[in-house]
Automatic annotation (TrEMBL):
Family: Belongs to the class-II aminoacyl-tRNA synthetase family.
Pfam families linked: HGTP_anticodon (PF03129), tRNA-synt_2b (PF00587)
InterPro entries per UniProt: aa-tRNA-synt_IIb, aa-tRNA-synth_II, aa-tRNA-synth_II/BPL/LPL, Anticodon-bd, Anticodon-bd_dom_sf, Gly-tRNA_synthase/POLG2, Gly_tRNA_ligase_bac, GlyRS-like_core
GO molecular function annotations of the record: ATP binding; glycine-tRNA ligase activity
Keywords, sorted A to Z: Aminoacyl-tRNA synthetase, ATP-binding, Cytoplasm, Ligase, Nucleotide-binding, Protein biosynthesis
NCBIfam families the UniProt entry points to: glyS_dimeric, PRK04173.1
Gene: glyQS
Residues the record lists as binding ATP: 178-180, 188-193, 262-263, 321-324
Binding residue positions for substrate: R99, E146, F193, E194, Q195, M196, E197, E317, P318, S319, A320, G321
Principal subcellular localization: cytoplasm
Stated name of the protein: Glycine--tRNA ligase
Catalytically driven reaction(s): tRNA(Gly) + glycine + ATP = glycyl-tRNA(Gly) + AMP + diphosphate
Protein purpose: Catalyzes the attachment of glycine to tRNA(Gly).
CC terms in the record's Gene Ontology section: cytoplasm
Length: 458
């Protein structure tokens, strides 16, 4: 029976080194978390799976890694400076600040029940920061609230350096920052997080077809990461809930421990961003000089060779939160099982490609040099396969090791024992996380066994 409360996940994450409260030794900081030794592996594996599917397995997507700190005009013309806001309500009694659209009743404080609350006001979510040694009215910019703008501002650079024609996409993974009014639900709503974003550019008129395609493709990808179909829903965003740049948005929701909430948004951003950055070029001297020339690099447009004209493409954006993705994958994987002997075990049943540790190699005897040497040799061999982290772990207690590795989701444990050094073929014991079955494999056959396991299981 899966028991999946947020408290259980938070506690496992801390105990086993997935996620820690940020700035913990100073009392913590709201909305900021640190990823520990296993958390970083899980994060990297999820990113790699996204990159594989979005870039390597397609021939119409390029990658990018743009700077987090950009010229402040990017956010003026993207519309974020004026419209990237959430409605906020202040309670005069308990002094808490609340997001109006999350309140049960905007006239009553959710925290203390008082009706002595302000009218909702717009609060801009971007973090302002100063750039350079001088602090004056002009020296500010913002930490990016989405990675997307770095893609739009590099549109021409990518087109010119890769000779892409429509349709094609640009993919990026990186940190984003939002000064959320009420960060909550562990890593679900935080102020510093990572996004995995694709901006897929197509001809106007083909946008709705591509929008539908990406909604389906992204759902499938989450299923491939192990999320169960019944825990995924779509929500069609309408009216005032649409972002300032969106013509239509489909949110992919997942059943987190606190309920169904957004995991990824797939938006039809039309030509809004490329169009407004292109228009903005008029206001700058540097580009005004080349503006009259049709081939200006400042135009974020692409040449339609058939119609012989410049065209600003439409853009479909699947934008996934990496931290929310990690929370979803952990929620789904968390399993408590009753064993035949009446005891229980906690297992993280990650898909093998996501498991933070792929194989744990444990010598049965801590101080037996031949056993230790063989275990280390096998670790080095398996590490070279490039599957991810292979852990050599010499605690001398294999039973405890199995329990620990169940709890962190290690798919395979290999034990090196007396048979391994005494018998021909150096047989080692291979234990499967999910079935708990143990089989014997000769040391020379172990790399092939492990590769086969990881290829067949995903
Ligand atoms: P929400 O309505 O939950 O605030 P949003 O609609 O503002 O989210 P988008 O702007 O569509 O979110 O961002 C795309 C994705 O980035 C979201 O689906 C989510 O996975 C992730 N994301 C956005 N804000 C946060 C946050 N504060 N903490 C963690 N992830 C976030």
């Amino acid at each position: 029976m899966p028991a999946k409360t947020m408290d259980e996940l938070v506690s496992l994450c801390k105990r086993r080194g997935f996620i820690f409260q940020g700035s913990e030794i100073y009392g913590g900081m709201q909305g900021a978390y640190d990823y520990g030794p296993l958390g970083i592996e899980l994060k990297n594996n999820l990113k790699a799976a996204w990159w594989r599917s979005m870039v390597y397995e397609r021939d119409d997507v390029e990658g990018l890694d743009a700077a987090i700190v950009q010229n402040k005009h990017v956010y003026k013309y993207s519309g974020h400076e004026d419209t990237f806001t959430d409605p906020m309500v202040d309670c005069h009694e308990c002094k808490s600040r609340l997001r109006a659209d999350h309140m049960k009743d905007i006239k009553v404080c959710d925290n203390c029940g008082s009706t002595n609350v302000t009218e909702p006001r717009d609060f801009n979510l971007m973090f302002k920061t100063n750039v350079g040694p001088m602090v004056n009215e002009d020296s500010y910019t913002y930490l990016r609230p989405e990675t997307a703008q770095g893609i739009f501002t590099n549109f021409k650079n990518v087109v010119d350096s890769t000779s892409r024609t429509l349709p094609f996409g640009i993919a990026q993974i990186g940190k984003s920052f939002r000064n959320e009014i009420t960060p909550r639900n562990f890593i679900f709503r935080v102020r510093e997080f990572e996004q995995m974003e694709l901006e897929f550019f197509c001809k106007p008129g083909e946008d709705e077809k591509w929008h539908e395609f990406w909604v389906g493709a992204r759902k499938q990808w989450w299923l491939d990461q192990g999320l169960a179909e019944e825990n995924i829903q779509f929500e069609y965003v309408t009216g005032d809930d649409l972002s300032h740049y969106s013509k239509s948005t489909v949110d992919i929701l997942y059943k987190f421990p606190h309920g169904f909430e957004e995991l990824e948004g797939v938006a039809n951003r039309t030509d809004y961003d490329l169009g407004s950055h292109t228009k903005a070029q008029d206001e700058f001297d540097i580009t005004a000089k080349v503006k009259k020339n049709e081939h200006s690099t400042a135009k974020l447009a692409i040449r339609d060779l058939e119609a012989n004209k410049w065209e600003i493409p439409f853009c479909i954006e699947p934008s996934a939160g990496l931290d929310r993705g990690l929370l979803a994958v952990m929620t789904e994987a968390y399993t408590e099982e009753e064993l035949p002997n009446g005891s229980t075990r906690t297992v993280l049943k990650f898909k093998p490609h996501l498991a933070p540790i792929k194989v744990a190699i444990m010598p049965l005897k801590k101080n037996k040099p031949e056993i230790v040497a063989l275990a280390k040799e096998l670790k080095n061999k398996l590490q070279k396969l490039g599957l991810g982290r292979i852990l050599y772990e010499n605690t001398g207690n294999v039973g405890k090791g199995y329990r620990r590795h169940d709890e962190v989701g290690t798919p395979i444990c290999v034990t090196v024992d007396f048979d391994s050094i005494e018998k021909e073929g150096a047989p080692v014991t291979v234990r499967d996380r999910d079935t708990m079955e143990q089989i014997v494999v000769n040391a020379a056959d172990l790399p092939a066994y492990v590769i086969n396991y990881f290829i067949n299981q995903d």
